[in-house]
């Protein structure tokens, strides 16, 4: 039987509770969910204006442009991942919780991905139409973005955790995280290009999956360590 | 053996031993780099296809090797600092980072310059050069993160975590040529493997690489000792050392 | 020798610009790093010597404190407290003086 001061249920309950809390908080502040999507759309709008509206040219660069814009939109939303919790002190409480911090971090990142990365992946095909993305690659675009943004959320959370305690951490966050994003970008946009060409899609998606697996294994520990460093400051 | 590792924690011991080893590494670096330079510039045969611009390999490869190795050793020092709380490891890591960044920059520059007569272009976005550019950004990130923290301890731990996370990029650099078919030449020089170049060409390269590593060790020893003086200035052994005025440079 | 003359060596078969640019920058970097390390060490020693000259050791600091309390030989609780405060102020003045030295 559980003693009175011990948590009533195990770590899985804590994870679910954290997930529900974060989803609820994010949904309450609709702005935090909508803003990255609008940013994504705006950036995609900028490119034809800045380069050329010619569909043939746009079709060539569309896979990369879509991926870069989605990546930047995801990066933008990362700064607020831990900041509000850091500011009101609840972050410290979770670090003191008996549940493993790495698990709680995973819950937070999952909530972030569900409401940032996944929506980005879902509206990408619409923006692909605007960039004259060739047919047959839309499904690849969705899947690669869904897989890729999961890795981006995990890797980005490490950077967010390292900089959450710093005064102007937002700019430094981009500097730290963007180099680490590049492998995901290479294989993500490569997957869409492969789908356009018609071969090699499976290989690219497999590597994206492998990158996600590595991130899932290693990132939570790095995030937890980084949070402790930021709290102790 | 364990006593040796325990001694490694002591800045005082490192300062003394480092001071003794330092001159040897500086001398070795000077000698090897001078020998390799003269050999590579004047005596090694020119490449059949690239002509004399091939000689840039004798500075490009050592700096590129060092750029990657320094990041790995920085991450290893970070690990030693985080896991075993060896402050000396963090001191070494903090002085290694700018050296590595500079090496990466020079490797990129010499690679770009080499590209002009060879491929007709100042910059090519192949996997090797791109990975080296990413490495430069990683170095800048580690240096910036360490400085962004107000406390020495916080900056040290944050830089260690970032270095360890970044070091996962290094295997991607190493195997990127396999993953991507590009214009950049396949690796023709490995320490253990057979060389694709004739010995008259890769022997001076080996001398240069070893010379550059000796330079790095000598530089790190010197700079770490300066860092020890800066950080441990309040300790009695430092006071005694400085007051007797007989510390070797 | 791979070259026939010094002029040939400098010309590097037409690739002089590239070879000497790359080599020049690399050797310049090595030289700059060496000089930087040397100056850094000299600076560290100089700063340390200056700091140590202005900072008395713990032993040097304790002597005046002891002589003050013995000489005053306080008889009442009040004078005990004021002399203790005076010696604390002396000590803190000493340390603030030290901290103002770069």
TrEMBL record, chain B:
Which residue range or ranges hold the Cytochrome c assembly protein domain? 22-184
- Mode of membrane association: Multi-pass membrane protein
| Parts of the chain that traverse the membrane | 21-44, 56-83, 95-117, 129-149, 161-181, 201-221
**Where does the record say this protein resides?**
Cell inner membrane; Membrane
Query: What UniProt keywords apply to this chain's record, in alphabetical order?
Result: Cell inner membrane, Cell membrane, Cytochrome c-type biogenesis, Membrane, Transmembrane, Transmembrane helix, Transport
Location, primary (coarse class):
membrane
Q: Which InterPro entries match?
A: Cyt_c_assembly, Cyt_c_biogenesis_CcmC, Cyt_c_biogenesis_CcsA/CcmC
Which superkingdom, per the lineage? Bacteria
NCBIfam families, per this entry?
ccmC (TIGR01191)
User: PANTHER family given for it?
Assistant: CYTOCHROME B_B6 PROTEIN-RELATED, HEME EXPORTER PROTEIN C
Write out the similarity annotation. Answer: Belongs to the CcmC/CycZ/HelC family.
Tell me, in a sentence or two, what this protein's role is. Required for the export of heme to the periplasm for the biogenesis of c-type cytochromes.
Protein name (Swiss-Prot/TrEMBL): Heme exporter protein C
Provide the gene name from the record: ccmC
From TrEMBL, chain C:
Transmembrane intervals: 20-39
Biased region (Low complexity) positions are 77-89
Compartments it resides in:
Cell inner membrane
Its membrane topology: Single-pass membrane protein
Q: What does this protein do?
A: Required for the export of heme to the periplasm for the biogenesis of c-type cytochromes.
Q: What family is this?
A: Belongs to the CcmD/CycX/HelD family.
Name assigned to this protein: Heme exporter protein D
Q: Gene name on record?
A: ccmD
């Amino acid at each position: 039987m559980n003693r009175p001061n011990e948590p009533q249920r195990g770590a899985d309950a804590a994870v679910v509770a954290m997930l529900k809390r974060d989803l609820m908080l994010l949904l309450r502040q609709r702005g935090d969910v909508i803003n990255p999507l609008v940013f994504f759309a705006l950036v995609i709008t900028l490119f034809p204006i800045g380069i050329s509206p010619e569909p043939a040219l746009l079709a060539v660069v569309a896979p990369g442009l879509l991926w870069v814009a989605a990546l930047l939109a995801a990066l933008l939303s990362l700064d607020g991942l831990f900041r509000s919790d850091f500011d009101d002190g609840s972050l410290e409480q979770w670090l003191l919780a008996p549940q493993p911090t790495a698990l709680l971090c995973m819950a937070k990142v999952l909530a972030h991905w569900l409401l940032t990365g996944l929506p980005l992946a879902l509206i990408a095909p619409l923006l692909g139409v605007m960039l004259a993305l060739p047919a047959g690659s839309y499904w690849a675009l969705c899947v690669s973005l869904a897989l890729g943004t999961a890795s981006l959320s995990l890797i980005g959370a490490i950077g967010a955790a390292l900089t959450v305690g710093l005064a102007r951490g937002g700019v430094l966050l981009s500097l730290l995280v963007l180099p680490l994003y590049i492998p995901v970008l290479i294989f993500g946009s490569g997957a869409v290009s492969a789908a356009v060409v018609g071969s090699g899609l499976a290989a690219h998606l497999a590597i994206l999956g492998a990158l996600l697996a590595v991130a899932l294994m290693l990132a939570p520990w790095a995030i937890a360590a980084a949070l402790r460093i930021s709290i102790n400051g | 053996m364990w006593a040796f590792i325990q001694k490694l924690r002591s800045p005082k011991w490192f300062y003394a031993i480092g001071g003794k080893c330092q001159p040897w590494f500086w001398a070795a670096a000077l000698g090897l780099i001078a020998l390799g330079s003269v050999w590579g510039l004047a005596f090694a045969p020119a490449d059949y296809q690239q002509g004399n611009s091939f000689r840039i390999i004798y500075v490009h490869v050592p700096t590129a090797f060092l750029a990657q190795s320094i990041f790995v050793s920085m991450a290893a020092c970070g690990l030693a600092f985080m896991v075993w709380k060896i402050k000396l490891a963090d001191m070494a890591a903090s002085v290694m980072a700018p050296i590595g960044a500079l090496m990466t920059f020079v490797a990129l520059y010499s690679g770009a310059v080499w590209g002009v007569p060879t491929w007709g272009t100042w910059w090519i976005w192949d996997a090797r050069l791109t990975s080296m550019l990413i490495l430069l950004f990683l170095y800048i990130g580690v240096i910036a993160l360490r400085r962004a923290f107000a406390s020495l301890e916080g900056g040290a731990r944050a830089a260690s975590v970032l270095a360890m996370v970044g070091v996962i990029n290094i295997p991607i650099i190493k195997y990127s040529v396999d993953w991507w078919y590009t214009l950049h030449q396949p690796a023709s020089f490995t320490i253990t493997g057979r060389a694709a170049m004739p010995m008259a060409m890769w022997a001076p390269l080996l001398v240069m690489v070893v010379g550059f590593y000796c330079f790095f060790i000598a530089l790190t020893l010197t700079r770490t000792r300066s860092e020890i003086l800066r950080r441990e200035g309040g300790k009695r052994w430092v006071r005694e050392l400085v007051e007797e005025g007989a510390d070797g440079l | 020798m791979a070259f026939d003359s010094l002029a040939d060596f400098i010309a590097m078969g037409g690739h002089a610009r590239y070879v000497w640019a790359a080599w020049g920058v690399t050797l310049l970097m090595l030289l700059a790093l060496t000089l930087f390390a040397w100056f850094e060490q000299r600076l560290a020693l100089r700063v340390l010597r200056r700091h140590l000259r202005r900072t008395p050791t713990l032993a040097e600091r304790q002597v005046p404190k002891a002589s003050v309390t013995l000489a005053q030989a306080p008889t009442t609780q009040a004078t005990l407290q004021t002399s203790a405060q005076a010696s604390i102020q002396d000590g803190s003045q000493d340390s603030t003086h030290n901290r103002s030295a770069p």
